Structure formats: C-alpha cells, structure tokens
Amino acid sequence: MSARLQPYGKNPTYWEWDGKPTIPLGGSDDDNIFNALPQDEVVRQLDRVRAAGGNYDRCTVSHRTDRGIEIKPYKRLENGKYDLAQWNDTYWNQFDRYLSLCREREIIVQVEIWATYDYVAPAWWAENPFRPANNVNYGGAQTSLPDVQVNDYDHPDRTLFMRTVPALNDDKVVYPYQQAFVDKVLSHTFTYDNILYCIDNEFWSQTRHNSMAWPDHWVRYIRAKAEAAGKTVYIGEMFWPIPRPIDANMQYVMDHPELYDFLDYACVGNMHEQTFWDHHASAHAYMARTSKPRPINHDKMYGADTNTSRRYEETDTEAIDRVWRVILGGAASARFHRPPTGIGNSDAAMASIRAMRKFIQVMPPWECSPRMDLLSERMDNEAYVTVNPGQAYGLFFPGHFRGPKSVKLDLRETGGALRLRWINIGTGEFDGEETIAGGAPCRIAAPLEGSAHGWAAVITRGPEHP
Asked: Which fold would CATH assign to domain 370-460?
C-alpha cells in the first residue's frame, strides 16, 4: 500500500497525499506554534488554514523564549538547572497534541529537528538547557561547547553545537544527549504519516567552520531508526540565505538523492521581485539536471509591513508575490512565515491560499511548466506565466509591481475562442471573466483596481474547465 505522503509518482518534483498530487500551502504565526502560542490559538490557526484550503505547517522543535510562554523539553530541578536525562512531559504532550491536530485536519507538517538559533544566538544559548552552565549533566571543561556564545557569525566557536557528531569533533559527552533528543522527537513523529523531516533551520552552509557531515549524520541516523521501525521517511535540508541562487552545499543536497529527498529553498527569501524569480529558476534548473529530480519546498516565505528592517523588500504584498512566483515556478510547497517578518495566519495570507487553490484547480502545477518565452512587451516582475500545453495558461500579475500591468501572451499554440477568468488575490475569489481570441499574440491587462495584492488569470478552452 502506498504511503499517505510521498513524492508524486507521475512527477516526483511534487508531493502526493493519499494517492493524489497536492501543493502544501499554509501560514501560521510562529515556527513552533505548539510551544509558542496558547493551546486554543493553535487550534484556531490550524482551523483557519484548513478552511482556506491550506494543508501545510512548519514546526521547529524549538524551545527558545520569544513570547514568554514557551517551555523547555527538559525537567528543571529545584536548583534551577536542567537534567538532560529527564523530560518535561508538558512540552512533549503539547508537541504530540499539535501533530495529532494536524493529522486530523490532513495538514502536512515539516518538522525541523534542530532549531539553529536556539543553539547559536547568544541570548537564546544563554537560556538553553544544552549550555554547560544550565544543566547538571556536564560542565564546560568536559565538552566542546562554549559557555558564552559569541555574536560573530563566522567565529569558529559559534557553531560548535553542530560539530559534535563522530565525523567532526566527536564530543562523546554532548552527542548522546543530542541523540536522545532526536530519539524523543521520532518517538512522537513516527506515530503519524503526515510528516516531512528537515534537519536544520537555516544550516549555515556558507560558514567555513560548518560541515555537511552534521546534516549527513542525522539523515543517516533518522533513516536507520525509520527502517528499524518499518517507517518510510522523507528528509531534506534548509540553508542560510545567500546572495546567489545556489551554493556548493545546496548542490550537494541536490546531487545526493540517496540522502536527501527534498531541498527547502527558503533561503531565496532574501531576494525580491525579478531577482527572486531568477534565483528560483536557477535552483529548479539545477535540480532538473540531477539523477533524481525531487521536490523543492518553501516552508517560510518572508515579507510583512510589520517588518521595520525592510531588508528584503519585506512587505505584505511582496510576501504574497513570493508565494505565487514560487508556485508558478515549480515549487512543491509554500508557507507564509511568522510575524513580524511574515504575514503568517493573517486574513491576507488566507485569502491568497484560497486564490491559489482556485488557480491550482485549473492549472495543476504537476502538469504545467513556466513559459516566460510566451510573454512579450513585459517589464521585469510585471507578469509570470505557466502553461499546461494545449489545455490552459495561468498568469500572475504581482501586486508589488508599480504601475499598470499589461503584457502580450503568445497564444499561437492554442486557437479558437478562449475563456479568461480573473482571480482576485486580495479576496481569494474569482472576479470577472471575458472571451479572448487564441491563435495569435493577445494583450492581457490586469484590472487597475479591486485587489490589494495582485491578480491571477486562468485561460482555458471553454466552460467545461473547472
């Protein structure tokens, strides 16, 4: 019997759920809502995602203090220190409840085993149970771990937590506790069939002191555990944002299908507009040339008006544009990142998901391909197109593009009268239709008003299409 969740048999760059291809879509207000939000709010947000047509969430197994309600996975003793040999049952009960809630709603969960910044950010390392000063299991002199984390991304001590495995520093004191942590995660996730595994949040591949021996080790470890338990697992990796489309370690993941089942390309989130599309296209082109093309996920899409840093053109509209670009460009999943640097579970995010589901119903991505060569009289970032040959055309006009949106679409491959329907991404609903002539280039102009977040259009042969 087929697994509930697996790469789609007819096009393995996408996911399949219960025998049918799917695009996991979602948006939530934190990367670990089971620990960062009140428990009733967890239910509310998952219900909103499902009601909008979403089926995807991200879950870092994190325990950093962000909101003040988070708890640690370990038991805290009367002396204020943690015992890494004893679990905090409340933390793990919340984790399991969350996984169960997602499974009931058929929401796919991408679990990130190591929440990188819990272990490398100075403030969060200061409170981390693995910090030698914070537990009763080992002291600083017994391990390779620092007591105080330096605030320097390229300092050799910054990522010591990610070098404890036997192939690197072989820290025989700390590593057994890391192993036990992973075992505990798996003891819960193996109960469910809606789980994807990602080793890290933003592994710092460009830092010369890091090594792919860290994620490689945990991939092999989880696979061995899964095999022993009779489970099928799908494992990927995510990297720190970089200023170029792909780096050597991303290529490594794509070139090693025996280890990695997917790449999470969230790092493209530091690009915007046309550059964003171009980077994404480069990653997909590289994956297509590998011996085994696999899904490219995006489990956090940045952009929010509330992000005051504005480092990456991070507005609400650009977040929505990014999601639409990646899906038209061949991505296997997309999720809106948490506030304040993402729009999370907001009304705008849910409307975009509703709009995307309508688009996908007409333009199933696993049957389509980007065809930017069919667009002319186009400015950078003005419009994007995907095509189901001989069947349908899907266009996206970004909300972040400034000015009227009008391009020519080459319809010479499809003759006769064609039906064009507009999807309002701001409301998530169909919003007008017209008849256009195929068989020649045709000017397509998006409505000038009515949507705060851009427009999509689907062009089909006739009313028989959904």
From this structure: Immunoglobulin-like (2.60.40)
